[in-house]
């Protein structure tokens, strides 16, 4: 599995379990998600050996909540934030400068492509600004990436936009983690 992390904050932004494609400019990833509903809540005492008393209601005192949202946002704990067009423009200029500097240090071969294609990506984003919801990583670091959420023409299918050069890819392999001892092997006897 590949995990895509913000190069500034280290926050997980998405993984390769979603449909991912590059945008026309080649500067961004478009990641398609799904709207999901999840039930979260307490485990009833009866499931862990407790004895339900006569004072407890029929539901066994189970308190659960149902949350719904875009799976990318829920799975990676992205945090919604807000922008006016003017403040987003200021953020975007600062962010683009930071990414260009990072590329110069870590991937100098990418700088020319980034400088060439970033304005096209930014122009497309600003043209569609009113349709976006904005999300930061879990840390909510204001210097990090702000991902954009929109919906396809069907009005049902969500997708998010992430700046490609603002991400680092981490390979996560459960088999390797088991072999390294970081995750206990279920075959081991205790």
Record keyword descriptors for this entry.
190 residues, alpha+beta, Metal Binding Protein, Guanine Nucleotide Exchange Factor, Chain A, six-stranded antiparallel β-sheet, three-stranded antiparallel β-sheet, globular, disordered C terminus, Translation_control_tumour_CS, TCTP, Mss4/transl-control_tumour
Please report the total strand number as a whole number.
11
Mean pLDDT: 85
Indicate the proportion of strand residues.
Answer: 25-35%
**Tell me about the biggest sheet?**
6 strands, antiparallel
**CATH class designation:** Mainly Beta
Nearest-angstrom radius of gyration?
21 Å
Anisotropy-based shape: globular
Count of all domains: 1
Q: Which strand order do you get reading across the main beta sheet? A: 3-4-10-9-8-7
The helix/strand class is alpha+beta
Poorly predicted segments: 175-190
How far apart the termini lie comes to: 29 Å
Describe this structure in a few short sentences.
InterPro entries: Mss4-like_sf, Mss4/transl-control_tumour, TCTP, Translation_control_tumour_CS, Translational_control_tumour_p. This protein is α+β, with helices and mostly antiparallel strands and 190 residues long.
């Amino acid at each position: 599995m590949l995990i895509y992390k913000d190069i500034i904050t280290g926050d997980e932004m998405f993984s390769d379990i979603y449909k991912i494609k590059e945008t026309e400019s080649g500067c961004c990833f478009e990641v398609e998600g799904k709207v999901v509903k999840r039930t979260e809540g307490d485990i009833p005492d009866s499931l862990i050996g407790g004895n339900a008393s006569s004072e407890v209601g029929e539901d066994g005192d189970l308190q659960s909540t149902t949350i719904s949202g875009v799976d990318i946002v829920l799975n990676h704990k992205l945090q919604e934030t807000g922008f006016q067009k003017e403040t987003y423009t200021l953020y975007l200029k600062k962010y683009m400068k930071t990414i260009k500097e990072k590329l110069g240090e870590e991937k100098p071969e990418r700088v020319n492509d980034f400088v060439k294609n970033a304005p096209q990506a930014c122009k497309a984003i600003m043209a569609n600004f009113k349709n976006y919801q904005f999300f930061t990583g879990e840390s909510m670091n204001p210097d990090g990436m702000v991902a954009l959420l929109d919906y396809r023409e069907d009005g049902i299918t969500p997708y998010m936009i992430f700046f490609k050069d603002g991400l680092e890819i981490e390979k996560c392999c459960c088999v390797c983690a088991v072999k390294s001892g970081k995750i206990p092997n279920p075959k081991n006897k205790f």
